[in-house]
Specification:
Structural class: alpha/beta
Number of domains: 1
Distance between the termini: 33 Å
Radius of gyration: 16 Å
Number of strands: 7
Shape: globular
Order of helices and strands: HEEHEHEHEHEEH
Helix content: 25-40%
């Protein structure tokens, strides 16, 4: 995979120190531990604010992960598109129903280590149902799902447990959603 903010020599260690300092200054705690041989789908919820992204960026830097994330293609305009990609972004055209799941699964086949962050709500707005692409990516790639979260009520964000999907969406999704039941987004009215 390409070089990102999480893998740039000299710059990444400096940004990691800065991330630790900023988290302390703003009073947020990073939960989790560095994970070696990282190969999983990372979901992040609740996604209720534009602030979710910088907070998770700081947490991921502190935990020494190299993460790629999916974002709507309007986040990647010229001239800042290169910067968003350097932050780990993968532009997604949400207007086209296509083979995004299969393309992502192929990336897992081609890369021995890969973490793709997918917000299951698909937007910061209130939704009734989560999108299930993250689940299908994990099942088809044969990788676990890591439950990432932002919890404004505790002022913490991080990585919780690995969840190994069994391939039965109706059985697995309630278990995944149960983990997030007590997590409060930065803008709870959007949850």
């Amino acid at each position: 995979m390409r070089r990102t903010v999480f893998s740039t020599p000299v710059i990444t260690p400096l940004l990691r120190l800065l991330a630790i300092l900023i988290l302390k200054l703003i009073g947020w705690k990073a939960v989790g531990r560095p994970i070696e041989n990282a190969r999983f789908v990372l979901i992040g919820a609740p996604h209720t604010s534009n602030w979710d992204f910088p907070i998770m960026l700081l947490v991921v830097l502190k935990l020494r992960l190299q993460v790629f994330w999916m974002g709507k293609n309007s986040l990647f305009p010229f001239p800042v598109g290169w910067f968003m990609k350097w932050l780990g972004g993968i532009p997604v055209d949400r207007s086209r129903a296509g083979n995004l799941v299969e393309q992502t699964v192929q990336q897992y086949r081609d890369n021995p280590e890969l973490v793709v962050l997918v917000p299951p709500e698909g937007t910061r707005s209130k939704v009734k149902e989560w999108k299930t692409g993250f689940y299908h990516i994990a099942v088809n790639a044969g990788v676990p799902i890591v439950l990432g979260y932002v919890d404004a009520s505790r002022r913490e964000a991080g990585l919780a447990d690995f969840f190994q999907p069994i391939g039965n969406l109706e059985e697995d999704m309630p278990k995944i959603r149960a983990f997030y039941a007590d997590k409060v987004g930065i803008n709870p009215e959007n949850a």
